[in-house]
Specification:
The complex is a heterodimer of chains A (about 260) and B (about 260). Chain A is an alpha/beta fold. Chain A has 2 domains: about 1-75 and about 155-250, Rossmann fold; about 85-150, no CATH class. Chain A contains 9 helices and 10 strands. In chain A, the strands form 2 sheets. Chain A has a 6-stranded mixed β-sheet, with helices on both faces. In chain A, β4 (about 60-65) and β5 form a beta hairpin. The longest helix of chain A is centred in the last third of the chain and has 15 residues, at about 235-250. The relative contact order of chain A is 0.18. By secondary structure, chain B is an all-alpha fold. Chain B has 2 domains: about 1-40; about 55-260, MetI-like fold. Chain B is built from 12 helices and no strands. In chain B, α3 (about 40-55) packs across α11 (about 220-250). Chain B is globular. Classes of the chains: A alpha/beta (about 260), B mainly alpha (about 260). The interface between A and B is medium-sized, with 23 and 22 residues.
Chain lengths: ~260, ~260
């Protein structure tokens, strides 16, 4: 579905140039939920922005369903970390959710219905007439997710989506992501710096190195479903995978026993 | 409400201050501290001010001033907001025009009225022209700066859904700049009133608050009427300003509410 080959990106030029991506290769199959983890400053967001067409990478190739990404792809939605800046404060929650649907040429009635449906799916059926800033942070991020869902993207990109909410809300939103992923056969790419989260949510965890980023690990997560915040996190496979991802993120070779 | 609580109310406090000042002036006048041909008694001025409210000739003059004010302001908004949006979204063009703006802006607008008198034989055209020149700056500058302040994440969000630059301007940049534009329009409204009356004072003519004042200055008890007309000009300024503030509060509740959360 998504194919990335030898993707490189360098910010600036000359002695102050910063190479964020040092040749990324990645293939994502349709319907997969892939988490991308890496240390901070590892170019995770650069990767996401390149896929979204918001940034033109300096080298390499990205294809989506066989078509090279040159501009912003049609069938794609992004959930940003900063929900309070990503939602439009002058519009009601329902209008925020239905606005992108104008791109799909839907009638007003259809848009209203799609928005209401998406809000119900994220558990905010009665919040449509409120304004985003009247809601809590977690609820605002639910609105962002509803906005993406209503758009019915084939690829959903999530950039540190739960980085600005408290731990309890974070778990709720992780479970929401697992719940909605099956709704429209979406492929999801979720960027996070939280190792536990990547293992808990993902079908696959791709680990990036420090900048210039490369893929240093690609692990399949085979946990018994349905996943559950308590039991899954106690599962021996979860604990093992978490350790493996952790070592990869810290740059410790997986075969080496830890220093302790 | 107890007396102490009343004092905490800003409106009550302000009214109290004004009333005290007026009473002191009245007392000083009656005590003979200054001649009534220098400053008429407060009570006389109040009486004349009330009298003017029923004076048909004066009301026609107020209507003339406010017509020029509203037409001038309307024209300024219609021209300046799109211009500000254009300059704000095209930094290269802005850089080219910037020196011109910096040169024109500090010229005291009132000093341009004699020039405008030569250029515009029609009184209304003249007033609209000087109002435009003076009040375009706050709107232009606020629009440009407001546009620069638009959150890049908000713009990127809409872009990521495949919206083009014009749609982003219309659906994100314009609404989030609107509160800044509104502040610019409010400031411009105050300036426009100054310019309307100044043009009437300098250019003469037969209508407008300024024309009324000039006419009154040639009559024996003119001083009282000049002051009363000035009081009305002040009232008009306060009323229009608070109408603008009220409209801003109502329309941009999201702006103040969000700023309140951030603070």
């Amino acid at each position: 579905m998504l194919e990335i080959s030898n993707l490189t990106h360098t910010y600036g030029s000359g002695p102050s140039a910063h190479t964020a991506l040092g040749g990324i290769d990645l293939r994502v199959a349709e319907g997969e939920l892939v988490c991308i983890v890496g240390p901070s400053g590892s170019g995770k967001s650069t990767l996401l922005r390149s896929i979204a067409g918001l940034l033109r990478p300096t080298g390499g190739r990205i294809t989506l369903d066989g078509t090279p990404v040159a501009q912003i792809p049609d069938d794609l939605a992004v959930v940003f970390q900063d929900y309070s800046r990503s939602l439009f404060p002058w519009m009601s929650v329902a209008d925020n959710v239905s606005l992108p649907l104008r791109r799909k040429g839907q009638s007003r009635k259809q848009r209203t219905r799609s928005a209401a449906e998406a809000l119900e799916q994220v558990g905010l059926a009665s919040a449509g007439s409120k304004y985003p800033w009247e809601l809590s942070g977690g609820m605002q991020q639910r609105v962002s997710i509803a906005r993406a869902l209503a758009y019915r993207p084939s690829l959903l990109l999530m950039d540190e989506p739960f980085g600005s909410v408290d731990a309890q809300t974070r778990e709720d939103l992780e479970d929401l992501t697992l719940l909605v992923r099956g709704l429209h056969n979406m492929t999801i790419l979720l960027i996070t710096h939280d190792i536990d989260e990547s293992v808990y949510v993902g079908d696959r965890v791709v680990v990036l190195s420090k900048a210039p980023a490369r893929v240093v690990g690609d692990l399949r997560v085979d946990l018994p479903g349905p996943r559950d915040q308590i039991n899954t996190r106690e599962h021996s496979d979860f604990v093992r995978l978490r350790g493996e991802v952790g070592r990869l993120v810290r740059g410790v070779r997986p075969s080496q026993p830890s220093a302790l | 409400m107890s007396g102490r609580a009343l004092l905490r109310n800003r409106v009550v406090c302000g009214a109290l201050g004004v009333a005290t000042l007026l009473l002191l002036a009245e007392a000083a006048g009656r005590a003979g501290l200054f001649g009534q041909d220098t400053l008429p008694l407060t009570s006389t001025i109040v009486a004349r001010t009330v009298e003017l409210a029923g004076d048909e000739e004066f009301l026609t003059d107020v209507a003339a001033t406010m017509t020029a004010w509203s037409l001038g302001l309307l024209l300024t908004v219609a021209v300046t907001v799109p211009l500000g949006l254009l300059l704000g979204s095209l930094p290269k063009v802005e850089a080219t025009v910037r020196p011109l703006i910096e040169f024109l802006r500090p010229i005291p607008s009132v000093a341009l009225i004699p020039l405008a008198i030569l250029l515009f034989p029609d009184r209304l055209d003249l007033k609209i022209a000087v109002i435009f020149y003076a009040s375009c700056w706050p709107i232009l500058i606020n629009t440009m700066y407001g546009l620069r302040d638009v959150d890049p994440v908000a713009k990127e969000t809409l872009r990521s859904f495949g919206f083009g630059p014009l749609a982003v301007l219309w659906r994100v940049s314009l609404p989030s700049t609107a509160p800044f534009i509104a502040t610019g329009v409010r400031l411009a409204g105050g300036i426009a009133l100054i310019l309307a009356v100044s043009a009437e004072l300098l250019a003469g003519g037969s209508d407008g608050i300024g024309a009324y004042v000039i006419e009154a200055s040639s009559s024996p008890d003119g001083l009282e009427f000049i002051i009363a007309a000035t009081v009305w000009a002040g009232i008009l300024g306060v009323v229009t300003n608070s109408l603008f503030i009220g409209a801003e509060r109502r329309l941009f509740r999201w702006h103040t509410a969000r700023a309140g959360v951030a603070a």
